[in-house]
Amino acid sequence: MAGQTDHALRGDYSQIRADYTVVQDYSRYSPEEQDLWKRLYARQSALVPQYACNEFIDSLNSLNFGAGIPHFDEINAKLQPATGWTLVAVPGLLPDDVFFTHLANRRFPVSVWLRSPEEVEYIVEPDIFHDFFGHVPLLFNKVFADYLEAYGKGGVKAKGLHALDYLARLYWYTVEFGLIRTRNGLRTYGAGTLSSAGELPYCVESGKPNRIRFDLLRVMQSNYKIDTFQETYFVIDSFIELFDATAPDFTPYYAELRTRRDLAANETITADIIVKV
Ligand code: HBI
Ligand code: FE
Questions:
Q1: Residue range 178-190: average pLDDT?
Q2: Which of 142-146, 158-162, 183-187, 197-201 is predicted least confidently?
């Protein structure tokens, strides 16, 4: 989940280390929270076969963490040999540069707290269900895992270039809300849609949002909303396409973007290649 919050952050930041990581104190999860996790997992995994990309489905099925809130170290025992990534426990949203530094070192920050039963439909900040169900399965996909590390490295550089907003948009429209074309039609790979009961079918089926062929500068030119379903989704044909598009140094892209007007989240322009559902 991305998108900054202006209200006080939910998590307990009193025990953070210098890199904002904390211990996942498993004893603090109540039986009610374990039940809520099972409900959230059952609800989302029932939707996944119809709307998620195959890479996500295959990984989710092999991990099978629906029986209860996962232990980070148990998943790390599988994740590290698979793609070299490690989940690190954090209290919630991190400052951009801290977040990027973790990604650049193949560490994925996962919040330790679970939403309340009243937040089953919608939550602003990333909780453990969003981070785990939405993000963790694709960390097992080699190309996507490479993309995320490269994204983190780009973010560390972007801070110096005052280009964090552009990169935040790229993260939002790919890692959080990206769509991918498959031979079975449009599917999603975005953690924000995969962890949402309402937006998962919506992003693939609804006639309301714009769906635009991925174009790197177009994505980084586009604003986004953090408190509604997306009004625009960007569509790739493969993770390789995403990795290759973002491999070059971004410095000239930032210069070009500064000459362009920011686009509203619901805007389309004539150059857009519109993708039909
Ligand atoms: N922190 N824990 C956490 N998770 C995120 O997804 C996250 C973050 N901080 C910043 C952020 N995302 C976005 O601003 C990124 O685009 C940088
Ligand atoms: Fe997220």
A1: 97
A2: 158-162
Look at residue 7 and tell me if it is in a domain: no
Q: Is the pLDDT of residue 208 over 80?
A: yes
Which of the ligands is closest to the CA of residue 192? Answer: 2
Burial annotation 7-23 (CB, 10 A radius, 16+ → b, else e) = eeebbeeeeeeeebbbe
- Residue 209 near ligand 1, beta carbon < 6 Å: no
Q: What is the pLDDT of residues 215-241, one digit of tens each?
A: 999 999 999 999 899 999 999 999 999
User: Given the DSSP bridges, would you call strands 185-188 and 179-182 parallel, antiparallel or unpaired?
Assistant: antiparallel
Note whether 23 and 15 are within 8 A (CB).
yes
Total structural domains in the chain?
1
Average pLDDT of the residues in 5-22: 87
Alpha carbons 85 and 110: distance in angstroms, whole number: 12
Best mutation site among 4, 99, 135 for ligand 1 pocket (most ligand atoms within 8 Å of CB): 99
Whether ligand 1 lies within 6 angstroms of the CB of 99 is answered as: yes
Q: Atom of ligand 1 at shortest distance to CA of 170?
A: 16
CATH of the domain at 176: 1.10.800.10
> What is the pTM (predicted TM-score) of this model?
0.95
Tell me how far the alpha carbon of residue 171 lies from the centroid of ligand 2, in angstroms.
9
Q: 109: Cβ below 6 Å to ligand 1?
A: yes
Closest CA to ligand 1's atom 16: 168
pLDDT value for 26: 97
Is 15 a domain residue? no
Asked if residue 132 belongs to a domain, the reply is yes
